[in-house]
Amino acid sequence: MNQDSLVIAGKAYRSRLLVGTGKYKDFAQTRAAIDASGAEIVTVAIRRTNIGQEPGQPSLLEVLPPAQFTILPNTAGCYTADDAVRTLRLGRELLDGHALVKLEVLGDPQTLFPNMPETLKAAATLVKEGFQVMVYCADDPIQARMLEDIGCVAIMPLASLIGSGMGILNPWNLKLIIEQSKVPVLVDAGVGTASDAAIAMELGCDGVLMNTAIAGAQDPVLMAGAMKKAVEAGREAWRAGRMPKKYYAATPSSPSGGLIGHGKT
Question: What pTM was estimated for this model as a whole?
């Protein structure tokens, strides 16, 4: 295990960037972007992408084989707990008993903001059924703690609305969630560009999940590479510990000894 691996549900991953598989022009571009991102975990919307539920049709698993990637089925498009649970049961069946899943229960089709009462309800059911639940949620520290208490293996608060590209709108709430959580915290939704991903990591997030920020870029493959570097740089900056912010610099960065007027005469 790498000294700084991302560990989710007992499994270690080198990459802290998780990526979605929707909105690309074709499967070839999907694979090229994911390769450039270095991601090992890829999310798949069971309701929108064929992974075997449509026999005879092209399957994403032919392009992203489970032997090479951890496939993370998700419940994009679900608006009730019951719907989300049914969808992930189907995903587990299609992936031969695969337990790691991403839960999202949406509140409305315009904002795609999470419906937290239904999310909590679905999470409780799924955990009881043996699923390892990574959960998309509001940036609410209290509800994040409730999801962790239920048994979710990763908490995934939004940075801003899904697909908005607005970046991190409330870093203070994210910090509160990070400080209290004993499971990985990953920003999910709202990342627009590489600096957003770096900021999330500098705050202390364990990882970042994104789709539109890469797939919606003018050059998705190039952006995927940029996101890989941003996540790595942000993680290293967090580990290094940034200098304290100051209103003004009272201490020069270079030694003053030997300068005219400062040395011994």
Answer: 0.88
Radius of gyration of the chain (CA): 21
Cα-based distances in Å from 42 to 21, 24, 34, 73, 127: 7, 14, 8, 8, 21
Would you put residue 10 in left (φ > 0), alpha (ψ -120 to 50) or beta?
left
pLDDT by position in tens, the chain (length 265) = 567 899 999 999 999 999 999 889 999 999 999 999 999 999 998 877 777 777 878 888 888 989 999 999 999 999 999 999 999 999 898 888 889 999 999 998 888 889 999 999 999 999 999 999 999 999 999 999 999 999 999 999 998 888 888 889 989 999 999 999 999 999 998 899 999 999 999 999 999 999 999 999 999 999 999 999 999 999 999 999 989 888 876 666 666 555 565 555 4
Choose the catalytic residue: 102, 121, 128, 264.
102
102 is catalytic: yes
- C-alpha 173, offset from chain centre: 16
Mode of pairing for the β-strands spanning 186-188 and 207-210: parallel
**Burial class of 164 by CB neighbour count within 10 A (0 to 12, 13 to 18, 19+):** middle
**How many Å separate Cα 77 from the centre of its chain?**
18
Collapsing DSSP states into helix, strand and coil, what is residue 212? helix
